[in-house]
Amino acid sequence: MCYDELDPTEKKIFLDIACFFGRCKRDYLQRTLDLEERSGIDRLIDMCLIKIVENEIWMHDVLLKLGRDIVVHENVDPRKRSRLWDAKDVYRVLREQVTGKVESISLNLSETKEIDLSPAAFEGMNNLRLLKFYYPYPREER
User: Fold this and answer.
1) Which SUPFAM superfamilies match (predicted)?
2) DSSP string, 74-122
């Protein structure tokens, strides 16, 4: 687990996977990355930070927590973090003035109340590169 040994692009991919893509299809993740970043996936595999199981990205829960902790420790103020996934933090950021620090937002809409998604909510987000609002599919009972 050598996060510090990763280059900036690889760190970015590691944090994206930990915060948003911990259990997704490799093809889906690659569509969100540019060509330079796609090679970073292989480096994370080589360093055993992720693995591919049946074409699905898999990151151990400890590493998921590590990645999220790294982002949370960027700043106590969620408006000054690079990635947001917690519904309360997303609400706060969309309600208040935002700096250009926020790069990615993922929001499970089943965890929210009504939210103002007017274009004005995103005005200060000059570095926003990923915006994902979703309802999770219910898991089948076995």
Assistant:
1) Winged helix' DNA-binding domain
2) T-SSGGGSSEE--HHHHHHHHHS---TT--EEEEEGGG-------GGGG
73 vs 44: CA distance, rounded Å: 22
Other Cβ atoms less than 10 A from the Cβ of 16: the count is 25
Q: Is 34 helix (H, G, I), strand (E, B) or coil?
A: coil
Tens digit of each residue's pLDDT (9 = 90 or more) over 87-142: 889 888 888 766 678 999 998 888 877 666 777 888 888 899 888 888 877 655 54
DSSP 3: G
Containing 72, the helix (H) or strand (E) segment is: helix 61-72
Q: What's the rounded Cα separation, in Å, for the pair 70 and 79?
A: 15
> Which residue do the tokens 């074409």 mark?
55
The pTM assigned to this predicted structure is 0.84
Specify whether the CB–CB gap between 103 and 71 falls below 8 A.
Answer: no
